[in-house]
Structures are given as structure tokens and as C-alpha cells.
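Reviewers of the previous submission asked for a worked example of the structure-prediction workflow described in the proposal, so we include one complete record here. The input consisted solely of the amino acid sequence. No template or homolog information was supplied to the procedure at any stage.
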Amino acid sequence: MRYAVFILLLICTQAGKAQSLPAFEGKDTGAMIKASYLYNFSKLIDWPTEHKTGNFVISVMGGGNLHQELVKRYNDKQVGSQQIEIRKIAKTLNISDCHVLYIGSEFSDFLPEVVKALEKRPTLIVSDADQGLAKGAALNFVVDETQLKFELNIKNATNRDLFIGSTIRSLATKVE
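From that input alone, the workflow returned the following C-alpha cells.
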């Protein structure tokens, strides 16, 4: 019991350490942390006015357990006045109707094609790709030693009419 409490406390206090956390009761802690990041990115970014009605759509392409974590933890939450809707998509599905699009590492080769398909759309593209920012993502997850962190490309976000708040800018390990 003491061990379980210790692990829970460790997860809560050091949420940014993805690779060093042991699996807690078989749960994918990396997916839990990424889900938390995506939800908080959604709250800290400002979308154009015309995209602040209807559901707030977070789409996941790949990502293993990330879709399940998002549904379990955030499907009943809101971003502003918008109800969150979580979608699991394949590269062949329509990706243009989402606010946030996460592209897992297994689809990183597809990232430039997605960026082109969503050109001028106010979609926050988040990836796990090697050199994801250079390929067009606004935010890219990276592992720094044993911690899950993220990089930010402000130009990639502003080209999509997204305003990145100072909190995200200050937490990013690299800002371009």
C-alpha cells in the first residue's frame, strides 16, 4: 500500500517525467502525460472567434493509448464554452474539422502531407516526430533525458491564426 501511494504521489508531483515513471497498475504514464498536455494546450491557446462555437475537437492519429486517456479523462470537460469531443482518426479520414490534431510517431512521415492539407486552417498540429517543428508542427513532444517536454514553433502556429499564450512559451524547451 505504501508503495502504491508513493507511486501515485510521484506521478502527481513529477508529471513531466514520461520515461522514468514506472507503469502504475499497467497504465501508460506517457499517454497520461501527453493527454494532460493536449488538454492544457487547448485551454492556453486562443482560436479565431469563428472557431469558438460547436464542439472543441481533439483528434488523435496514432499515439497508442493516448486516445483512450483523452476520452477517459477529458471527454466530459470543456474548453471555454465548447464541449470537448475526442476523435481517433486514420490518415485517410477528413482531418480538417478539428482544433487540435496529434500525430503520433508512427505517422511522422505523413506529417508534411497533413500540414499541407490543413494549410491556413486554425488547427494546432502536435507531433512526436523527429524534427517535427521543421516539418510544420506547432508543438512537438521530445524526451529530454528522462522527461517528456515539448518544443514550440510560433510561426507555425501564427500561420494558422492561433495565438500562443505566454505560459506555453515559457514552458517550452525550445521556441522558434
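Confidence is low (pLDDT under 50) at residues 1-24. We consider this example representative of the routine output the project will generate in years two and three.
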